[in-house]
Structure to design on (133 residues):
């Protein structure tokens, strides 16, 4: 089964073509909006997966946004067929996420091989309304 090495949310990322190294620009843990409902600026979800024990069986990775009330929206899904490499980088560019209210939203990362979905990480994304002055 693939193993999640890291996952994070950032404003931008740069991948070096020669070395395949990734630079993460402005990691994100919260957003401030003037009013609700709101659309957040575009962000990136970045992850690295260890495929050493994954074998050759294809697997699927899903990214869901979970509201503070527990409503889930699937933001993206990707099926991966291991090619013999040990590591796999997977990034989603997420155009403006729509949020209805303040609180702790979660980006949930799940993987599915043969059976059920297994949540590998839950990244908090706090959303606050700006204070009028």
């Amino acid at each position: 089964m693939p193993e999640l090495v890291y996952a994070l949310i950032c404003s931008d990322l740069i991948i070096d073509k020669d070395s395949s190294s990734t630079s993460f620009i402005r990691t994100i843990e919260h957003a401030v909006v003037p009013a609700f409902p709101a659309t957040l600026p575009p962000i990136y979800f970045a992850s690295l997966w260890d495929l050493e024990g994954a074998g050759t069986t294809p697997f699927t990775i899903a990214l869901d946004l979970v509201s503070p009330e527990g409503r889930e929206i699937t933001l993206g899904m990707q099926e991966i067929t291991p090619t013999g490499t040990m590591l796999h980088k997977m990034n989603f560019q997420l155009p403006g996420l729509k949020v209805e209210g303040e609180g702790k939203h979660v980006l949930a990362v799940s993987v599915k091989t043969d059976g059920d979905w297994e949540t590998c990480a839950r990244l908090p994304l706090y959303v606050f309304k700006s204070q009028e002055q």
DSSP finds no helices and eleven strands in the chain. The CA atoms of residues 78 and 121 lie 16 Å apart.
